[in-house]
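note to self: dont lose this again. the chain is below, predicted strucutre after it. 93 aa total, dont forget to put it in the shared folder this time
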Amino acid sequence: KIGNAFDVVCERNQVDFEKIAANVWEVEYAITLRNRKSTPITVEVNEPVGAATWRMLHSSHKFTKTAAFAAQFIVPVEAGAEAVLKFRVRVNG
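---
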């Protein structure tokens, strides 16, 4: 957590979980970003993945693997609007 903002709101939901094998599972998330400002913004979403061995299966926005356990997304959000970042990751643990 970086800080609090009343005009930029984030809501993170896990929308799916599927166990593929004993130590393999897939998790899908939807992160809704709301911009209550009168100007467009770009939000940097730093998402912990939870395991050193993971693969992004699909994502609505381009991502960068920033660490063994993390992915970063850059999400533009128009003024007075919302954007939804969706991604599914396969984790081996």
